[in-house]
Amino acid sequence: MHPEIMQQRSTIASVPAPIGGWNARDPFELMPETDAVELQNLFPDSVDLKLRSGFREHADGMGSGIVKTLFELVGQTGTRKLIACTNSKIYDATTFNSNASDITGTTTPTDDQWQYVIYKGTAILVNGSDQPQQISSAASVSDAAYTGVTDDADFIDVTVYRDRLYFVEKDTSSFWYTNSANNLTGATTEFDLGRIFKNGGYLLWIANWTRESGSGADDLLVCCSNMGEIVIYTGANPGDSSWSLVSRFEIPIPLGIRSKFNVGGDLVVITEQGVIPLSTVLNAGAVASYAAYTDKIQRAFSSVAKYAGSNAGWEGLVYPRGRFIIINVPVNAGATYEQYVMNSLTGAWCKFTGQTAYTWARYDSGLYFGGIDGKVYQADYGTDDAGQAIQARMRQAYSYLGQRGRQKRILMGAPLINASDTITFSYDVDMDFERTSFGAPVTITGSSGTAWDSATWDVSSWGNANVKNDEWYNLCGLGSAVSVKLSANITGVDFTLNANRIIFEAGGYL
User: Fold this and answer.
1) Domain range for 294
2) Do 315 and 460 lie in a common domain?
3) What is the pLDDT of residues 86-108, one digit of tens each?
4) What is the CATH number of the domain that holds 271?
């Protein structure tokens, strides 16, 4: 039956796309209809859902091991290098579509997971097992030697604070700092936090946090134990009279040595109970008072952290070009990795799958990841995953369509979709909080023709830049609350979802 005729005894309702993002916190009955129960590879933008971009192979020739370290080295003259570490070697992976260059120095690494800092155009690398390394802006690698400590190969983390290098000594409560400012190597002095840590454990990581204090920027040194104790200092260095303890507080257990990253002027920590900005804890002054970025996906995050929290591969990254923040989730170490992704403007979440990434980096403003197959990939590129389809799935939050408590028979639906070409997808509904399998596929057909500026004028036909679909499809559902669901394996097509229109017949009150 045609929708116009059907409307004479039916009701039409419009449900916006779930731009509120993935919600794994609220009960289904109380969840806003602009949220989603499931949102995979569909990014919640400010007005619509967008299929995430794909990825392509960037650099190869490094063997078949896991790329455990990837970072951009920017020299003081502006030179940019993409450095990758895998298979007990260090590589220059800067050049696209080529084999990476082995730049390993005289020390053969035994552990490819390096922690690093860029200081004065030079990268300083430590891994807790091997001699620290330094990489110049010309991608030349050499040993970095430090005295004072029994064995500088025990340095497991590094940061720069007020023009000095600070190192964490593995399996201790101590950090070491260079005696002289502006030095890349040389003598170091120990500072032991054992008397400060009340819950025992060891120093896990160290970080510089430049925080706006209200009267200007304030440089703080943040030390985190494996038990979740945070100790913050200010002052020139531990040997100076200005050195003082700012705060000590506790957060949930952090998920590994790469659990900290910067978001704007904040320092953020990935913990077993969510991703926590330290500013919220410092301002509150109590362990029970903190806000987590991941509050809206708390149940899903806590669940995966419970069984995968000890896996290596947890890390976070801000990606300004894409307007999102990535939390890498090592679901199954060495095999399955997902990304929980937050829109940095709206706070809406989704999940990315299909990108088997151990580590992430920005290079020349683009997004890259180290794979488990010894390759470096460029993400946020193209419309397929290195030739494979991107698997998109959406289950929207349940809606009463403006008539809570009334029974409804769902008749038809029209997804308002924009696609750059022909696309086949499954479009269906779930009723009354029951999740069922996806229905039969439907197809949106794009126009034929040639893209603008790539064919002979007045000879070839022009293809449309985009296909807008508002066709109606038969749906079948009976119940009070309806959830629109969509599933598609998409290759070579840009895809956005703006809203869904639903035609239904309303019955009596339940």
Assistant:
1) 56-84+145-388
2) no
3) 999 999 999 999 999 999 999 99
4) 2.130.10
- The predicted pLDDT at position 450 comes to 46
Regarding whether 347 and 295 lie in a shared domain, the answer is yes
Nearest residue to 258 (alpha-carbon basis) of 337, 314, 338: 314
Question: Which of 388, 407, 439 is the endpoint of a domain?
Answer: 388
DSSP state of 109: -
Strands 155-161 and 11-16: unpaired
As a whole number of angstroms, the distance between CA 416 and CA 35 comes to 17
Last residue in a domain, options 369, 388, 407: 388
Residue 399 lies in a domain: yes
157 and 63 inside one domain: yes
The CA-to-CA distance between both ends of the chain, in Å, stands at 28
Q: What is the pLDDT of residue 509?
A: 66
> Over the stretch 49-76, which tens digit does the pLDDT of each residue have?
999 999 999 999 999 999 999 999 999 9
Q: 3-state SS string over 20-61?
A: CEECCCCCHHHCCCCEEEEEECEEECCCCEEECCCEEEEEEC
Task: Rounding to the nearest 10 degrees, give the CA dihedral for residues 30, 35, 40, 41.
Answer: -170
- How does pLDDT run across 141-191, given as a tens digit for each residue? 999 999 999 999 999 999 999 999 999 999 999 999 999 999 999 999 999
CA distance 99 to 423: 35
Phi first, then psi: what are they for 320, rounded to 5°?
Answer: -60, -40
